[in-house]
Design goal:
- This protein has 13 helices and 13 strands.
- The protein has helices at about 1-15, 20-30, 45-55, 70-75, 110-115, 115-120, 155-160, 175-185, 200-210, 215-230, 240-255, 265-275, 290-305, and strands spanning about 35-40, 55-60, 60-65, 75-80, 85-90, 100-105, 125, 130-135, 140-145, 165, 195-200, 235, 280.
- The strands form five sheets. It has a five-stranded parallel β-sheet.
- Strand 4 and strand 5 form a beta hairpin.
- The radius of gyration is 20 Å and the shape is globular.
- The chain binds adenosine-5'-triphosphate and magnesium ion.
- The site of adenosine-5'-triphosphate has 16 residues, from helix 3.
Length: about 300
Amino acid sequence: MQDTLERLRASIASVYLGNTRAIDRLLVCLLARGHCLIEDVPGVGKTVLANALARSLDCTFSRIQFTPDLLPSDILGVSVYRRETGEFEFKKGPLFANIVLADEINRATPRTQTALLEAMNEASVTVDARTYRLDQPFMLVATQNPSDFEGTYLLPENQLDRFLMRISLGYPAPADEARVLALRPAAGALQSLAPVMRTADVLTLQARTDAARLDRTLIDYIIALATATRRDEELSLGVSPRGALALAQAARATAVLAGRDYVIPEDITQNVGPVCAHRVQSRASLNGSTAETIDRVLSRVMQRVPSPA
Ligand SMILES: Nc1ncnc2c1ncn2[C@@H]1O[C@H](COP(=O)(O)OP(=O)(O)OP(=O)(O)O)[C@@H](O)[C@H]1O
Ligand SMILES: [Mg+2]
């Protein structure tokens, strides 16, 4: 199974060049049954990365371009009346896929964004009082632009909290950018990617993640970290129990990705930023330096809370 994971990594890295850490984080989300929000400026490969993941898996994939006029039914599906049978038939929307790319999610209205909540939480969709299960695996990869451009709707806290991680990609190193220019991976390599991992393998890896051992000392460590964010004088909102659960699950998936069946403290610390930063709020949230404040607070919390040996 470890070599299949390695092939998956290599497949994505052949198209999305440079930031292998971002690839690993996306894989952690996949193994942890989590959804991933990729937040970054235009043109740094967000869509390419999400596409590369989907095409490397033997899964169904759909891409939804979020726009201000997108309606919940455009995502979820609609019941249509069939005159021949006199019955309503449900036509599934694009959300019914294993990997769903929700591109530029913050351009849809809050009503449409909210339509995703049930799917993200319970892996089901309710339309006209009937509930439909989504196939497993189900992973939402959403992209959004950080600067609140005109005509965008920032995701509300309750929706942000449903993303296991929020990651950014950053600019590639000059050598990697040179490869992007020389190879033009989005035009070539991406189109010819073939699946390297079966759906069944994804489910096996997810089950392994659930089973990865998390010792009591490490559980206590996660709780101490979460508690410290709740008490921090610079934060008005700390990490919730849902956030602490997410940190534990991300740590388990990180262990499995590294080929272990038990969690070590570094599996936890390296996930604190991507799992927690979007779940807390700084008191000084009106003066533009929110992101820096949160990064500073999270590093301080990690320094203050002793890591188990
Ligand atoms: N690290 C990278 N690896 C591979 N291709 C890259 C990388 N960074 C940028 N690109 C290239 O830049 C172009 C834009 O990429 P993409 O469409 O994924 O950007 P985006 O972040 O989704 O932008 P937007 O926010 O406008 O949707 C593509 O041709 C893509 O191949
Ligand atoms: Mg894009």
